[in-house]
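This section describes the prediction task in plain terms. A model, or a person checking by hand, is given the sequence of a single protein chain and must write out its three-dimensional structure as a string of tokens. No templates, partner chains or ligands are provided. The sample shown here is typical of the held-out split.
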Amino acid sequence: MDIVVVESPAKAKTINKYLGRDYKVLASFGHVRDLPPKDGSVRPDEDFAMSWSVDGASSKRLSEITKAVKEADGLILATDPDREGEAISWHVLEVLRQKKALKDKPVRRVVFNAITKSAVLDAMANPRDIDVPLVDAYLARRALDYLVGFTLSPVLWRKLPGARSAGRVQSVALRLVCDREGEIERFVKQEYWLLSSTLLTPRGDSFEARLTEFDGRKLQKLDIGSKEEADRIKAMLEGAAFKVLSVEAKPTRRNPAPPFTTSTLQQAASSRLGFAASRTMQVAQRLYEGIDIGGETAGLITYMRTDGVQMAPEAIEAARSAIANEFGDRYLPEKPRHYSTKAKNAQEAHEAIRPTDFTRTPDQMRGMLDADQARLYEMVWKRAIASQMNPAEIERTTAEIDATGPGGKARLRAVGSVIRFDGFIAAYTDQKEDDAEEEDARRLPEIRDGEALDREKVTASQHVTEPPPRYTEASLIKKMEELGIGRPSTYAATLKTLEDRDYVTIDKRRLFPQAKGRLVTSFLESFFEKYVEYDFTASLEQQLDEISDGRLAWKDVLRDFWKDFSGHIDEIKDLRVTEVLDALNEELAPLVFPQREDGSNPRICPRCGTGNLSLKLGKFGAFVGCSNYPECGYTRQLGADANGGNGADDDSGDRVLGTDPYTSEEIVLKSGRFGPYVQRGEGKEAKRSSLPKGWAVAEMDHEKALALLSLPRDVGKHPETGKMISAGIGRYGPFVLHDGTYANLETVEDVFSIGLNRAVTVIAEKQSKGSRGRTSTALAELGDHPDGGKITVRDGRYGPYVNWGKVNATLPKGKDPASVTMPEALELIAAKAAKGGKKPARTKAKAKPKAKSKSSKD
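The expected answer:
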């Protein structure tokens, strides 16, 4: 019996059915080893030696694989057919060699682009060795990402407290988003006017023609810039005689796009289905690994991480057969279509994303798939089918029209199209083609050369230029692909990291850079400009591709990179924080010091009138503060609108909401370094409450402020214990509390509306899950603290946290416990220890044995 290793259990289950009793398929559950998140995992001084660690779950899987291999006849590594899949096979093989489980047993590597019986059996019949250059490219990429992250991130923490991390690809993607925001801020709107006329043919048919020339001057989009000029031309046209100068009908063809690649699939799923990149990949992964179809499990699409745009010859023939059956012979070209990729640095060797069986139409599959799977499969099927269909045949008609009047001469143009044969459009069109199709729907009536036309009306419409749009996930992925930044397998993870780090937020599918993200980008552009340049990052990607092709040695690439990068890091370490802030004040002036409506100097403190505003750094990040501190305590959250856009009605940033009906104290909406909050009264005894997430500053009023300041709210006494149940908002969100038991509520609004019965139910549900108790099991050990003692990641009653002795530092909301690094842990521990004054108990040194006295017996 041979052991076959794949990544996922779903894949293992499907393949097991294909191979039969002579094989046993086991899953590695993805990567089995990784670089430990601590300094020294990659050691440049030791010729880039790398240390690998195995977590608890992977260790169990590897033990199962090792045991099975020892009892087997041979090993077959069947992980995914890309760089990551090759790396997983390499890691599994290295571990088995270390455990001496292989001895003289044969080891084979097989790859298949689709999980179908024929594809798997064909791959098993054509094994190969591990692709060493591909593994080298993985090692180089992993080492580079580690060295950049673990070298650059600590510099960020020291110079910009509150910044989370920097990464080789992540930082460049963030720069794209921030650069676009800068373009929007610098954009100056420009007014322009467009003129058109509705005209009638002698046969009574109407159509619209647009002005293209006036008094011998060809007009561009922005040439008519005022209402006065537009009215003058309009008056001339209203008194003009119109005559057709020429009519030209020109046939054109529109060709189909190639089948999907990873990035084009993510773009289409975003624009058509509203899927995030990560959601697209999750659904595609399920379609690839296999769906139960009438008792048979089969993969429905080919591998979904690819730059390739070509389909295998047998797939092309299958697609052509399906076209003839579904659409008819007229839609089938004489010869198959062939495509070549236009993506910069494309290097993936597999096919485009396509159905594994074109006879499985979307209509047939719809009842066997969930809604998201069905919609994505339909898109993949239709795009692949369309790629092999005949072009659409379109007739485009252009009529040039002369207008002569007492005020001058003008020329207008009417354009219309008609689809003579829909071709591939019958199956699929992308967004641009959809827009073109709408244009094609505007048909012109019969217009003849030289005939006179009647004027029905003349329209002058005002327009204003728009700034460039913010990136969506889809358009950012497209831009990264054009620049050669990142790879198909990295796009979704990169975008997710930016969102998790609070560097960007996504609103109505648009990416908005947060103040923290813009701060990090400006810092990197000011002091690490080379390493966030698009061309430099693309060039590095090119070198990694050359490694995978066997044309470059991976350690040579690392040496060249590290020599310059480490030297630059050493220079930046000596920078004073004041130098960093001066540079950021200049670079981020529109964000830090927005223009004021009264035209006053935006850098002068609005409270004291004499101090200068500047970026300041606190424990939790950057904010804007006055140079006269502590005499003047004015602060403003970075990114807050100094004109009141963040809820302030005056330059002090404060807005009076009313008075408390019971205490007669004034209630004020304020903006501090940690965000907006409401305050009742003054001084140390003042009651304060931060605005909950999702509450807009502009919508804050007296009633909402009173509700916030009344928390925690008594809900009622528990019917069994007689103890009070209260509701409030804590650091982990809305909750109800009873006798030491906290239970989370779904929304902030629940805090103000929840009744006694519902509260009792929520608490009972929480108690039924059982208490975790005061002790918790370590999820991971990160290593030793510089002052001694183990640092671990644990899961406690209020969520995951980092532990060092008696110091427990809660992880930021949304932080994956498995991704905590040693530097991040040290930072959290230091902040917690400084706040609470705790230090772990030091282990007492063992007492040295007393020297024997001379009188003691030998």
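For orientation: The longest helix spans residues 132-159.
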